[in-house]
Predict the 3D structure of the following.
Amino acid sequence: MENASGVTVLTLSGLSFTLEQRISLFLVTLLWYLMILWGNVALIVTVIMDKNLHEPMYIFVCNLCVNALYGTIGFYPKFLLDLVSSHVISYAGCMLQGYVIHSSVCNDFSILALMSYDRYLAICRPLVYNSVMTKQRISIFVFFSWLIPLYCMFMNTATLLGSRLCGSHINRLYCVNWMIVRLACSPPIANTAVAYFNILFFFGHCVFIFWSYLSVIKICISSKEKQVKFMQTCLPHLVSLLTFMTAILLDVLYIRFGSADVSQNLNNFMSIEFLLVPPMVNPLVYGFRLTKLRNRILNLVHIKSKDAKCNSVTVHVRAELSN
C-alpha cells in the first residue's frame, strides 16, 4: 500500500528517553498490558462459560471487554516494539493501526449506547423488557454495534488511501487518521465529509446515552427499590461511561491544544489515556459491582484454590505412604 507521494515509512514521536528509561517503561507497559489481557479475558470466559450470565447486560459487558482487547492490540504490541527499536511505522501499518484504534473507540460508543438502552428498559419500562430484549434482537443489536462502527471507520480510512503526503513525521505515539490528513498536501474532501458525518453520528450516541440515564435517574428518585437496582446495575455503567468520556476528552484536548508548551510526558498521557485506564477499569468495576458476575468469579477462584489444596494434600499423603 503506497500513497501518491511514494512515502512508505512514517516516523512517530514522543519517546525521547534514555535506554534505562526505555527498559523500565517497557517492563511497566508489558505488565500493564498483561493485566489488561488477564482481566478482560477472565470476564469474557466467565460470561461465556456460565449460562446463568447469558443475559443482555452481561452479554453487552462481555462485548465491551472483547472490544477492549481489540483496541489495545492496535497499540500495545507496536508501542512495546518501539521501546526497544526504532520509532517508525510503515504507511500500510499506520493506516491499519489508525483504523483499529478509531473503530475500537466507535465500538465503545455503540456498546455503551446498548447498555444504557438495556438499563432504561429494565428500570423505566420493566413490563416490556422481556418482549424487547429477546435473544434474536440481542444478537441483532450486538451485530450492528460492531458492524456500523467498523464500516464507518473503514469509509474514513478508505478516503485517505492514495493521498499525496507532504511529510512523514507524526507528532504522536501512534497513528491516527487526523495526523495523516494533516500530512496530506491537500486534505481529501471526501475524508472531511465522512469524518464530520461520523462525529455527528456518534455524538448522537452520546446524546442518547445521557438521555437514557437521565430518564433512569428521574424514575429512581421516587422509588427506593429502583434506587437499589440502580446502584447495583447502573452505577458500574456510569463509572465506565465517565471513565471513557474523560479519556476521550483528554485525547481531543491533546489534538486541539497539544503543543511544545506542554511537557511531552503530559502530551503522551493525554493521547493514550483512553488506552490505559478504561480497558483496565471496566473488568474491575463490572467484576466487583455486578453481583452475579462477582459471585461467579469468586466461586471459580474458590473452586480452583480448593482443588489446589486437595492436590497438595494428596501429594503429601502419597509421600507419607511411600516412606
Q: What stands out?
A: The chain has a mean pLDDT of 83. The CA atoms of residues 109 and 206 lie 7 Å apart. The beta strands are 9-12, 88-90, 169-170. The longest strand covers residues 9-12.
